[in-house]
Design brief:
Strand content: 15-25%
Order of helices and strands: HHHHEEEE
Number of strands: 4
Largest sheet: 4 strands, antiparallel
Structural class: alpha+beta
Number of helices: 4
């Protein structure tokens, strides 16, 4: 997947890639600073800093794909369809936290228990 995304990115106009790099650098800078503030761990914060001369957009893309890949290992996705292939339902479940709201509050587990997490 990442090789495909990178090859498609490299086909973009140089001007678009230049703008994308600026946006990616800002996103990575914020992730680095937020991690530093929240954890106080410099090593974790520096994980969001690409090597010198490395394309920030490709670096961010690889980080995002790794995060999504790790997240997908912890959820079950069920898609219900009719015989003609029309989608009739989507369910995303986290086995440890219950259903995930697919209508806006992505990531908030709904375990439907009386116990309040915290």
């Amino acid at each position: 997947m990442s090789k495909f995304a990178i090859s498609e990115y490299e086909k973009l106009d140089e001007g678009l890639r230049f703008g994308g790099k600026a946006i990616s650098r800002e996103v990575l800078r914020r992730l680095e600073n937020d991690t530093r503030k929240k954890t106080g761990d410099e090593e974790k914060a520096l994980a969001f800093r690409p090597d010198k001369k490395q394309d920030a957009t490709i670096f961010l893309l690889c980080k995002m794909l790794a995060f999504i890949g790790a997240a997908v290992e912890h959820i079950d996705i069920t898609i219900s369809t009719t015989e003609d292939g029309s989608i009739t339902g989507l369910s995303i479940d986290n086995p440890t936290r219950g259903s995930v709201d697919t209508h806006g509050n992505i990531g908030i587990g709904q375990d439907n228990s009386s116990e309040v997490p915290g």
